[in-house]
Amino acid sequence: MEGELAGPHRGIIPRTVEDIFTYIVNDPEPTRWRLQGSAAAASSRDAGNTAVRQRGSGAGDWQGPGYDYLQIYNEVISDLLKPERTNLAIREDRRRGVFVEGLSEWVVRSPAEVYQLMERGQALRTTGATKLNEVSSRSHAVCIVIVEKCTAGLEGGGAAGWPRAPAAGKDAGASHSIKVGKLNLVDLAGSERVHVTGAVGKRLEESKRINASLSALGNVISALTDRRGERAHIPYRDSKLTRILEDSLGGNCRTTMICTIAPSLEAYQESLSSLKFANRAKSIKNEAHVNEDVDQRTLLRNSNVAMSTTWHNSHAHACCAAGVVWWWTRYERELRKLRAELQRRSKELVDKRALLEVEEQKRRAEADKLAALTALEKRSREFMQEKEEKRALEARISAMQARQEVPAVAAC
């Protein structure tokens, strides 16, 4: 995830941070970028050097993206940037969604400041020695980057929620639209087989916790791919990891998952399990936009309401010829939009039927592929068993030949 902080071997996190700041600097839109944070990075707002995030005093103050860093060790959430903050609780509300209560929030103005916080958090992350790795990660780590974008728009206030008609000699009032983006960068501890890693005592307990959280993640992904209907139960609360990543797994977001495998026969089972896990994960479908479902009847009803509202407003302005012309022009324009939307929705109904057929064919292909993987796994086990039997038979033949040669030598 981290790799080198400079050069061609930079990791995912450094490349992501650089892209974010490059986009902010080169944004062509007349926007202001700000974050719910203090006015300067590493300013002191509580007992330590934490920059606790709060809304800036000036609307035009660019405060940079926000950065959080936490780890989940033995199902306990700790702040890697404020190590005294441990055993943090997960909360949820309508405004913020799922969040970690008490997690320190830092404001950063450049990639260099992010790298400083990364190194500080990495030094505090829990690691331990096993037979396979002297500095094995014993916890899951989550880097959180939050960016807020403020844009100007037109103020509402017209009839039926339409934009207000411009008054003579002045523009419509201005308002602000704020968009908030949240990026979770997760470094998962790998699953462990105890007989391979040689974990005992404290390391054994850590391995149990790691495998349990990864198993919970697998159960969530299986439930998301197999669910029937919108009310199907998804076991997000079975693990702190899946609870924190609830929005990233099945919400309004885009998710990328990278699974690594080893090109060795000893890691055959782990590699096959990773491929099966990835095969399930890629079947999850997230909707990274505001969900809206309007049928034809609702569109017609909205059209009638808009026509009625426009007529009443036109009647109220009948004494003014300019007002009548303005409202009538607007009525025709909105009516054309509604008719075009109705035609588009009708076409989508036809396209959805074709899409359902394609999805069914895809589902069957996935089932065939999974069956092929299962057959391959079975054949591999049979091959290994035959190989062992052949080896045992060769040993017996060698032993019998040896016994036959001994009497011959004695006879001589």
UniProtKB/TrEMBL annotation:
Gene Ontology CC: microtubule
InterPro entries per record: Kinesin-like_fam, Kinesin_motor_CS, Kinesin_motor_dom, Kinesin_motor_dom_sf, P-loop_NTPase
Record keyword Plastid present: no
GO molecular function: ATP binding; microtubule binding; microtubule motor activity
Keyword tags: ATP-binding, Coiled coil, Microtubule, Motor protein, Nucleotide-binding
SMART domains in the cross-refs: KISc (SM00129)
Positions in coiled-coil regions: 328-403
Gene3D superfamilies the record matches: Kinesin motor domain
Entry superkingdom: Eukaryota
Stated family: Belongs to the TRAFAC class myosin-kinesin ATPase superfamily. Kinesin family.
PANTHER family xrefs: CENTROMERE PROTEIN E (PTHR47968), KINESIN HEAVY CHAIN ISOFORM X1 (PTHR47968:SF36)
Protein name: Kinesin-like protein
Source organism per UniProt: Haematococcus lacustris
Top-level taxonomy: Eukaryota, Viridiplantae, Chlorophyta, core chlorophytes, Chlorophyceae
